[in-house]
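S.,

Sequence below, as promised.
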Amino acid sequence: MVKQQYELTFTESCLGTAPNNEEIYTEYIASKAPDAMSREEEIESVGLTAYTEKGITVYNRDLNGNPALMNYHIKGFFKDACSMLNKLTPKDPTTGKKAKATNESSKLKAYKKIIDGLIFVEPRFIPFDFEGEVGLCQRPLRAQTMQGERVALAISEEIPKGAKIRFTVYCFDESLLAAVDEWMDYGYFRGISQWRNSGKGTFTYKKIGEPEYGDFLREVRKASEDAAD
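The prediction came back faster than expected:
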């Protein structure tokens, strides 16, 4: 098992994803959230009273009221990055099957299960470190429907570029750390959170310290017991 701490610096602003609508959040998103601590805590962490306008997406807040990403947002980014980079593996012109893997992501079979079960991110709430205020980003959403093109206005909380976050990644298989680094590199081009196709949420990163190897389950268990006390 190996753990590595990362620091991300956002090269573009990053948008909130939690809907500021308690009914929607309660009935759908909170109940579907992966490895949620509990529905009540998940709902409580969203700044539902910060804005009265429905349709706005906001950030979760940590216990100190700071806007934060959740650890499963990072894992969602890992899946998105792995899915895209996995497509780089060429096909054998004779058999039509995938040729030898050309990158770390291509080596992972059933990558979603691997990320879900063998790669973990701590802490639960990952607060932003930034100067200034949380802003709002408005942009049109266009969709082709049976009735023609429809346009709606989307509004999201926005953390300014230059913001930083820190978190630790635990890999139960030491070889997976190379894939995590590959996904981090990809974050320079495709970011985290909403409106990624416009460049929002892109980042650079650096590793904090050297990777540590060992059995960290006891360490995590002790931290859990201390928190319970």
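Residues 181 and 207 are 9 Å apart (CA to CA).

Coffee later?
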